[in-house]
Design a protein that fits this description.
Layout: E1 8-12, H1 17-31, E2 35-38, H2 54-69, E3 72-82, E4 89-90, H3 103-113, E5 121-131, E6 137-148, E7 164-166, H4 179-185, H5 187-199
Parallel strand pairs: 1-2, 1-3
Antiparallel strand pairs: 3-4, 3-5, 5-6, 6-7
Helix pairs in contact: 1-5, 4-5
Length: 209
């Protein structure tokens, strides 16, 4: 595995600004100025996320943006897996309430499905993938276990954060935590820190940890 001449440039393939911001914050905290992160260009194609797994969807997005820009591209896909719902919504988490659904509708559907249910155990799973310009693919996974709250709490985060109570926390949802605090424990933070270790092999020798 050879370093990329001129250093490492990555396009963040996500069209979700909240997710893109988290990716940038976590990777820069680990790799600093050893990596240059490039915003997804407006003209990049919209990718239909119709894969059967989180990794499939991350790969679809990363390859499409790599083809559009000629740069290595970083994408992820995240699913909320609820035990008593048989792992749903899983890979369909972003569209759980329908193709035009939003976070509020998705949360309302989850809470409705769990009404009266004692088993509210769940996990967030993130798969982060980089499609490199040399055609290699780097893949990392992060998991955060917890439970689903009975009502949304907190103004931070996005997606299902307002109803997710992480294990080992102090009773707050992810949406009640500050950004740095969330990154330290989150599924996405864990996946991206693992991915940063894989990316270090592509850094010039004098910039590797």
């Amino acid at each position: 595995m050879n370093s990329i001449p001129g250093g490492l440039r990555l396009v963040i393939a996500s069209a979700n600004p909240d997710k893109a911001r988290e990716m940038q914050e976590v990777l820069l905290a680990v790799l600093g100025d050893r990596v240059e992160l490039v915003a997804r260009p407006a003209e990049a194609p919209v990718v239909e996320e119709d894969g059967e797994t989180l990794e499939d969807n991350a790969r679809l997005k990363a390859r499409a943006v790599r083809a559009a820009t000629g740069l290595s591209a970083l994408a992820d896909d995240t699913g909320l897996e609820v035990d008593s719902l048989g792992g749903l919504p899983g890979v369909r988490s972003a569209r759980y309430a329908g193709p035009e659904g939003n976070a509020a509708n998705n949360i309302a559907k989850i809470l409705g499905a769990l009404e009266g249910c004692d088993d509210r155990r769940a996990r967030f799973r993130t798969v982060a993938l980089v499609a490199m310009v040399d055609d290699a693919e780097l893949v990392a996974t992060g998991v955060l276990r917890g439970t689903i709250a009975t009502a949304p709490r907190g103004a931070g985060g996005f997606g299902y954060d307002a109803v997710f109570l992480p294990d080992g926390g102090d009773g707050r949802t992810l949406a009640e935590m500050g950004a740095d605090e969330k990154h330290e424990i989150s599924h996405r933070g864990r996946a991206l820190r693992e991915l940063a270790g894989l990316l270090s092999a592509y850094l010039p020798d004098n910039e590797r940890p």
